[in-house]
Amino acid sequence: MILQVYITVNHQNQQKQSRNIAIYPQKFLIRLTFLLWLGKMKVFYIDFTFKKLKGLYMKKLSLPPTERRRLTRNQIYQYIYKAPGCSKQEIADSLNFSMPTVHQNLNELTQAGLVRIDGVGESTGGRRPLQLTINENAHFSVGISVTDDHFRIIAANLRLDEIAYQKYPHPHCNNMKEMGNFLAADLENFLNRFGLNREKLLGVGIALPAIFNADRTCVVAAPTLNLRDQSIRPLICSIPYPVSVCNDATSGGYAEWYVQQDSDCMAYISLEGGVGGAILMNGVPYTGLNGRSGEFGHICVQPEGLSCKCGLRGCLEAYCSSDRISTDLGISVEQFFAGLEAGNLAYQTLWKDYLRHLASALATIRMVFDCRIVLGGYVAQYLTPFLKELRGLTASRDPFDEEAEYISLCHYPKHAVPLGAALHFINLFVEEL
């Protein structure tokens, strides 16, 4: 049984809205989730779960008596998260904590099921030390990628490993309320189908192919969804769990940064039905003054060229979206590349044009940001045989680099967007535990 409750309280610049109270009588579980807007509508998601057992409120990990204690425990957890296989002594030495402090906090984390023993290390003269790692399956997060005709839903554990995945078709949605209704039904079906424990669910990240306003409360434009000037509240309020909504290309960039954190700045380009992107600086997206940074799909690569869905002509998206090599030809992307490999001359001509315009955009991005560039999205999984050629084309437009090895392919060619959406709540859990 789900009981929807909407309460709004206004006080000066602060607003609280209670979204949902989810009641599961068979599990004696009550979950209260609400949003907190502070100042200029900056969104925080707060989730309380109460489990009634013999009249008592049961909890696994107790709240430390002081913020300092919480920070100490969190530092230890984050250290183990980033250095799996570490020992108690390594934690104490690296964080400059006493062994009793490390031991006490590890007991709490272990009893809560958040940290586990993962073998033994090499002996340095005495007893072999126990190796510690996080329990990656203690919790999970859900990420959802939204397109005009389907949802891609994925569940990922604390290491961003895929637990479950399903694609759900849906009809065209005229507004956020309709989308929310379809999405809520498919999400519950997904959780039930794969037997996922809702008590372990951290939250649901939703990635939209959309441009948001500065405070991310409204979709300004989503051409591929045929939506404009839509509040995201109806979408958020349809989901009875903590929710985060963001741009799809930014989500893909998050996922790639998670596995490729080896530089200060990264440009990510998503080549799908739309072409988008993100700029990440130290893992934080640069959104620009109006939240429109990274709209690489609307770089002009051919003045007065092909028409784009945005209404202009010559945009990168018009030349390098997956639609150009699939929908526009009445075939699938897989069929295009199969024909290309088989020597189809028309496909070869089209593909050379695709690479030429993509290289033009990549050179422009390199000139502006002087950073590494990661190519992602559905098309990226087919680019491996063409990477050398693409680098050469880009280098010919770059006066400072002869090989363009700053261009690389993504780690998650198929599910980067929903995984990046799920990563929001994983990061939040790790940082705020």
From TrEMBL:
The keyword Membrane applies. SUPFAM superfamilies: Actin-like ATPase domain (SSF53067), Winged helix' DNA-binding domain (SSF46785). GO terms for biological process: D-xylose metabolic process. InterPro entries: ArsR-like_HTH (IPR011991), ATPase_NBD (IPR043129), ROK (IPR000600), ROK_cs (IPR049874), WH-like_DNA-bd_sf (IPR036388), WH_DNA-bd_sf (IPR036390). Keywords: Carbohydrate metabolism, Membrane, Transmembrane, Transmembrane helix, Xylose metabolism. It comes from the Bacteria. Belongs to the ROK (NagC/XylR) family. Transcriptional repressor of xylose-utilizing enzymes. This is ROK family protein.
